[in-house]
Design brief:
This protein is α+β, with helices and mostly antiparallel strands. 28% of the residues lie in helices and 21% in strands. It binds zinc ion. The site of zinc ion has 8 residues, from helix 3.
């Protein structure tokens, strides 16, 4: 028997057979091939100390983080309209 689940955003109960959406967000470190060793802002020793002081499980989250949400149709529309939750630019209105 399928158990009901709830929307990750509004907690609405999603009963078996109800439409719902799966929201999978992957956040991972990307690399453009440029190493800014000469950058004055980049102190290799300081960066290394910083990394050493971070627990390993947190360090992995720095590189890769995955979110898995269930959304009801309404919350899916709201999410897709503004995934990054950017401030709405009211001056853009016609
Ligand atoms: Zn919802």
């Amino acid at each position: 028997m399928m158990s009901s689940q709830s929307c990750s955003r509004c907690n609405k109960i999603i009963n078996p057979g109800d439409p719902f959406y799966r929201l999978l967000i992957k956040v991972f470190a990307d690399f453009d091939g440029v190493i800014n060793i000469k950058s004055e802002k980049y102190d290799l020793n300081k960066e290394f100390e910083k990394i050493k002081s971070i627990p390993e499980e947190l360090l992995e989250e720095e590189v890769y983080k995955e979110f898995n949400f269930v959304l009801c149709p309404r919350c899916k529309e709201i999410y897709c309209a503004n995934p990054l939750n950017l401030p709405l630019n009211l001056n853009n209105n016609p």
